[in-house]
Structures are given as structure tokens and as C-alpha cells.
Amino acid sequence: GAERSTLMSYFSKNQIQALKPKITFSTLRDLQCPVLQSNDLQGKPEESCSTEELFEWLGAVLNQVSLDNKSSSFLSTYCCPEPNTVVEKAFLCTITGFIIPEKIIQLLEQLCCYFGEPKLAHWLTLTVHGFADSPVSWRESEHGFHKGGENLYNFVIFRNLDYWLHMAVGAHDDCPP
């Protein structure tokens, strides 16, 4: 009754609207990428990288950290794990906003089109971040912000449609089994 009309007048006065997600595209050229084997989570020396090495590399790429290990860099001396390969062009798409699970499934399905002919992609990733200060995390637990507010999962999908799933949450949060 009264609460609802008060809320409605507040929203209309302040012109709060549902915002469309913001989409940005970029092309990364000559990107050093880890060599991955879908059936080898731990990686093998001189053959493939592990899931942990990939996850660390992905964080560097998404944050636009240089991968060339220059001693003059004040930000990072990180370099791409071995073995790696140089990819002439990699596409990075970032969608910012409130995105429902059904849309994430649609995105995954559309991304898998990159495995069609001609087979350009060996693997691709989709990372979904929750807001660092989100009130909830996995299951029905409150989200403990504490230090970093980690709250994300990442799919790595391979050409044969095998996939890896990374999950990252804060130390005080529940994580699905």
C-alpha cells in the first residue's frame, strides 16, 4: 500500500531506470597464450600448462598487464607460462551489468560457434564476475567481503567441447560442491 506508493514516487522522482549492459570489444594482437590440453589439468613440462597457470595468465590479460617480463616494469614482471604460443589475434569482449544465468548460457552457446569451420579457436574462455560487494555469494550464504571480495567463475571450453571450470570465492564464502 503506502510503502509501495512511496517507493514508486521515489523511483520516478529520481528517474532510476534499468540500464542496458555496457559492451566493449577489443582485439589483442600477437598475444602469448598458454598451450593447453583438455585432458591434462595439471599440465606437463614442455607439453601443456596447468589450470592454475591458465587462471593466473587470464587475470593478467583481463587486467591488461604486460606479459614480457621487463625488469624496468614497476607494475609486473609476470610472463606467460611455458609452453606458450603466439596468437596473431585474440578477441576480448567485456559485458558489464546485471546478467541473468539464461543469458550466460546463450553467450556460451554463441562462443562455441568459434569452433565451427574454419576452425580458428583451439579453446576459449568465459569469466563471470559477481560484484565484489554483493550481499550474497554461492548457495544461500552471505558474501564475506573481507579483503578482495572474490566472487567469480570461469569456463575454459575446448574444441572437442570438453571444459574446465574455475571457481574463486573469498575464504569465508561457501562454494558449490
TrEMBL record:
<dbReference type="GO" id="GO:0001682">
    <property type="term" value="P:tRNA 5'-leader removal"/>
</dbReference>
<dbReference type="GO" id="GO:0000171">
    <property type="term" value="F:ribonuclease MRP activity"/>
</dbReference>
<dbReference type="GO" id="GO:0030681">
    <property type="term" value="C:multimeric ribonuclease P complex"/>
</dbReference>
<dbReference type="Pfam" id="PF08584">
    <property type="entry name" value="Ribonuc_P_40"/>
</dbReference>
<dbReference type="GO" id="GO:0000172">
    <property type="term" value="C:ribonuclease MRP complex"/>
</dbReference>
<dbReference type="GO" id="GO:0000447">
    <property type="term" value="P:endonucleolytic cleavage in ITS1 to separate SSU-rRNA from 5.8S rRNA and LSU-rRNA from tricistronic rRNA transcript (SSU-rRNA, 5.8S rRNA, LSU-rRNA)"/>
</dbReference>
<dbReference type="InterPro" id="IPR013893">
    <property type="entry name" value="RNase_P_Rpp40"/>
</dbReference>
<dbReference type="GO" id="GO:0004526">
    <property type="term" value="F:ribonuclease P activity"/>
</dbReference>
<protein>
    <submittedName>
        <fullName>RPP40 protein</fullName>
    </submittedName>
</protein>
